[in-house]
Design goal:
homodimer, about 475 residues, Methane Monooxygenase Hydroxylase, Chain G, domain 1, two-stranded antiparallel sheet, transport (chains A, B), Aluminum activated malate transporter family protein (chains A, B)
């Protein structure tokens, strides 16, 4: 209170003078000092954490580091055009456009870079051509009308192009091109009013942009390329594997106990729920990529999106399934034991199917075992349904058997309410299985059809010696083990 | 076969010469002509459909048209700087940068425009300042080292900035700034090697960019502004309403029949499932917007995202619920009748809660009725649970009662398997209700807390005359009716 009201505490000393006590003041200073120190420490901790996170990000995927180095190198190379006089004189003052192109166009994936490069070149060419044409018309219609014609054409073209960006297809494929189109048109038409040798300007701009884009395309395709198509191709089966693990862990958690690590894996389905945007952007840029690795130019990337959507529909089910875990303790042990094995069986056969599908996509080879795996899953569904059918017998169950085995056992009725959670868990599990069968299997089948996946080894060479067949089946086991 | 092998059919005429028959050829020509006609018609139909779709897009939301006109106007105005000699001489040759800024920076929403403008200005300023500093150091360390120092600094800064774009926070808030930073740094440092009056260049560039950005900001904020924050604020309750309708229609469909229009509404939850990306991008740009309408500068947009995520978690449940519709015909009528009213009751009280929450967000006024609505929902859950408890009595039900009422009725046991679908439907419904209560209500409560929503009318003025109170309750009824 003293410090707040500005009251001073003093002691009257023997000689009559008073000594002012300043502990408050000192404390305040110290408190401010502590506060400052805390602030500084907190600031540096935050900065440190930020850098640590960034570093982890790079260590997690070193290609991100490489990408940064690539951008640096490309920029260095292109600025050479400016430093070296002979090149500079050749290309002229607009060498700056080459630098700009590199900065703006260089993306993480090859597809992204190609998308921007091609959009930039085409849009620049088209807009330059149009601007020259309109400029020619304008200059032939008299000096008075020239600015009006140029201004009006600029207004109309800019508005129309801006509107076209709202159309989903244009947005996905030519968004960048639209920006560049307006940009180039306005630059050429505006400077056309001043600069006389317009053709020269247009030619210069186009050639510098081509230098920049070529450099970008070469760097991104040759030095540690990151193909968007390949990324998408790897993401889809990885997500399916995550779903399979989630399902397994969820059922294992319901009918028993799982360790901490499995609890983490249980959350895997969340990645699938949130993957839509990244899948779509990858597919959008993958279409621009040339043939690479095992993929042709017109690889059916759209089908990957369908597989992704089907995975997501399974993920919705699994998400609902996990919320059943809250009520697992209320279910009587007897009922759990009765349904447990069938549920575990269904989950493992479902995740087996998902793993097989993931493997199919991954290796781009049709699976010889997928039909059997689906059949297994169907049988597991039937088994679980049978177990559900015999549930009423169990609901009227012997009571206190251990206490007195000779006395005829009393019968207790397990109320339906206690059974409902596990019954709905089981029917959600069946629903998941049916979604896998109806959506996922079909989507992968469609993908295999349109991407012309290879036939499985043992179908192509049915009369092989048993030795090779053994190796194949061993491999199958290995992946199955990895999945478990 | 004839045309394929190139064989000619001819008739020997009386005078010995032969006349070649050309019906194949004629037919082929006609077929080609038909094919071409078909192609052209199809092409124009596609073009026509494309334009029709585009037009519908604009009619659907006329603000998109306005946006295009705004861009056109802004570009026209900025190109005036170039056409008018006095202004041109004032700003100099780099007036072109103002044009460029307008093209690149103008976005659909005010937030998007501000985000780009502020990023552009700050990044340009920072990079220009840095480039000047490095240039000064380089020029003082001798002519020989100058290009090396400049090149190396360019390499390091470009790589580091590119890397920082991988960090999610930087990506969300400063992505555009990073691009502009690299761009400006490389432009200034590269041209610094040639142009002597660097300061002049930097100053010119900055001033033109400021002209461009100011024009953009003013145009986007004054002429028919589209606020990202407002869009987000309207989207969230709209999605909740869609969810409520979906839930109602789904339950109504299960226990009865619905018309075509309701079937469309049943699909509403899909919008919610796919809304994540757009919600996030809106919240990202909304943070840049100044106070507008009922929103302050630091309006808690993040809380809207939480409400959105909670809506989505309900949507997952409803998605699973809709897949139960396939099995609705297998459930015995008696069981349906038994549970129907409780389920309908629960769905209508759940959708009532969602509607109340949507209304709360929409009007930014805490609802006086929300507690009662939640209580209603809880009671409906209890009612449904009670009905589920009495289900076993029904499962052993009188058979063929109508045929002979005097004879003691035979008893039939409805097998548990027939009941399972409806039981799991009911428990999914209960799960949906619990998600609404635990996630959605809490998220909206949190939002109301942090955004300081108004207190409800009847709490603020408890001693009003009954007349006003009646109007308030009438309004409540009206919105409830609209929801239904």
């Amino acid at each position: 209170m003293a410090s707040k009201n500005g009251v001073e505490w003093s002691i009257r000393v023997d000689d009559g003078s008073s000594v002012v006590l300043e502990p408050e003041h000192k404390y305040r200073m110290m408190r401010i000092w502590d506060g400052l120190k805390g602030l500084v420490v907190r600031f540096f901790t935050r900065v440190w954490m930020f850098f640590k996170k960034a570093w982890d990000l790079g260590v997690d995927d070193p290609r991100k580091f490489f990408h940064c180095l690539k951008v640096g190198v490309a920029l260095m190379v292109v600025s050479l055009f400016y430093y070296m006089r002979p090149l500079y004189d050749g290309v002229g003052g607009s060498a700056i456009w080459a630098v700009m192109t590199v900065v703006v166009v260089f993306e993480y994936t090859v597809g992204g870079t190609l998308y921007k490069c091609l959009n930039r070149i085409c849009a620049t060419f088209l807009a330059g051509f149009l601007a020259l044409g309109v400029h020619w018309i304008a200059s032939h219609s008299g000096h008075r009308f020239e600015p009006y014609i140029m201004g009006l054409s600029l207004f109309i073209l800019a508005s129309a192009t801006t509107f076209s960006r709202f159309i989903p297809v244009v947005k996905a494929r030519y968004d960048y091109g639209c920006t560049i189109f307006i940009l180039t048109y306005s630059l050429v038409s505006v400077s056309g009013y001043r600069v006389d040798d317009l053709l020269h300007v247009a030619h210069e701009r186009l050639s510098t942009i081509i230098i920049g884009t070529c450099l970008c395309i070469i760097t991104s395709m040759v030095v540690f390329p990151v193909w968007a198509g390949l990324e998408l191709h790897l993401l889809i089966p990885r997500n399916m594997d995550k779903l399979a693990k989630s399902l397994d862990c969820c059922v294992a958690d319901y009918f028993g106990h799982i360790d901490e690590e499995s609890k983490k894996k249980l959350q895997g389905y969340k990645c699938v729920l949130n993957a839509k945007a990244s899948e779509e952007s990858m597919a959008n840029v993958a279409r621009w990529e040339p043939a690479h690795g095992r993929f042709n130019f017109r690889h059916p990337w759209k089908n990957y999106l369908k597989v992704g959507a089907s995975s997501r529909s399974c993920a919705y089910c699994i998400e609902t399934l996990t919320s059943c875990l809250d009520s697992k303790d209320k279910v009587p042990e007897a009922i759990k034991n009765h349904l447990g094995s069938a549920c575990m069986n269904l989950s493992s056969s479902s995740s087996n199917v998902m793993g097989e599908l993931a493997n199919t996509v991954n290796t781009m080879t049709r699976s010889a075992k997928i039909d059997m795996a689906v059949e297994d899953m169907k049988n597991a569904v039937k088994e679980l349904q049978n177990d559900l059918k015999t549930l009423p017998d169990l609901m009227i169950q012997p009571h206190d058997k251990e206490k007195d085995e000779l006395v005829p056992s009393e019968l207790t009725v397990v109320p339906l309410m206690d059974v409902i959670p596990v019954v709905s868990f089981a029917s959600l599990l069946i629903e998941t299985a049916s979604r896998i069968e109806e959506n996922l299997v079909k989507a992968v089948e469609e993908l295999a059809e349109s991407a012309q996946f290879k036939q499985p080894e043992d179908e192509k060479k049915p009369k092989q010696n048993s030795n090779t067949a053994k190796i194949v089946s061993d491999e199958g086991n290995a992946t199955a083990l990895e999945r478990v």
